Amino acid sequence: MRTRTFALAAGAVVLAGVAGMALAPRLGGASDAFADCRDGQVAGGDIGGPFTLVDGTGRTVTDRDVITAPSIVYFGFASCADVCPLDNARNAQAVDLLAERGVEATPVFISVDPERDTPEVVDSYAQAFHPRMVGLTGDAEQVAEAARAYRVYYARQDGDPEYYQMDHSTFSYLVLPEAGFVDFVGRDATPEDVADKLECFARAAA
User: Fold this and answer.
1) In a domain, 125, yes or no
2) Which CATH number covers residue 84?
3) Where is the signal peptide (predicted)?
4) Which of 20, 25, 171, 196 has the least C-beta neighbours within 10 A?
5) 59 vs 51, 66, 84, 136, 144, CA distance in Å?
6) pTM of the model
7) Is residue 37 part of a domain?
8) What angle do CA 147, 4, 40 make, to 5 degrees?
């Protein structure tokens, strides 16, 4: 249970920091086309941005290759026993709800455990949740760069060198192809909550 408890605690710390900073300054203020989609005004610096990772086929891809539709981006690891499966399943359900509403969306899983999560591993993991889910990994620096862009905390726990766990923050990031990051949701959000929020952003951007 340590992974789950720590992940939730880390997520709360990150959220507290994010709440005091700007989440999307290019979209902030009176001209924010997405203001009606947010629960409250957020102001400060940037979250999200360019990344270069490796997909399930072993191909090097960038954010422009991956974020081609409204997307739900989640950072975790394939060996995660409790937090990640629930969050990824929730995001997959949200994508199906969006499809019923005529909104095509992509769930994205980015591994923070590049040592064990090879392209084959992340591909199999992602496909187990949804046929549209994109699994991404990379070398240690590529993963670190992507995590820094999204202000994701992660750290390897001490212990067994093969069966170790990873602590990590647990937000899901809502990203649009042209606008980039627009908002995030926490673990308490339901599939309907995620679908409603991303649908709002997607239609506002259309």
Assistant:
1) yes
2) 3.40.30.10
3) 1-24
4) 20
5) 14, 12, 24, 10, 18
6) 0.85
7) no
8) 60
